[in-house]
Amino acid sequence: MRRLRKAASILAGLIAVIAIAVYFIFQLPEFGGRFEGKRLERMRRSPEFIGGRFENTPPQKTDPSLLKLYKLYSQGQIRKPQFEIPVIKVDPSSLEAPASQGLKAIWFGHARVLVEIEGLRIMTDPVLSNVLSPVPFVYGVKRFHPPPVALQDLSHIDAVLISHDHFDHLDRKTIQHLASQGTHFYMGLGVGAHLERWGVPLAQIHEMDWWESVEVKGLKIVCTPARHYSERKKMDNSTLWTSWVIKGSDHSVYFSGDTGYADHFREIRKRFGDMDLTLMKVGAYGETWLDIHMDPESAVQAPPGFRWQDTPTGSLGDL
Question: Distances in Å between the alpha carbon of 126 and those of 19, 35, 46, 122, 164?
Answer without folding.
Answer: 33, 23, 26, 10, 11
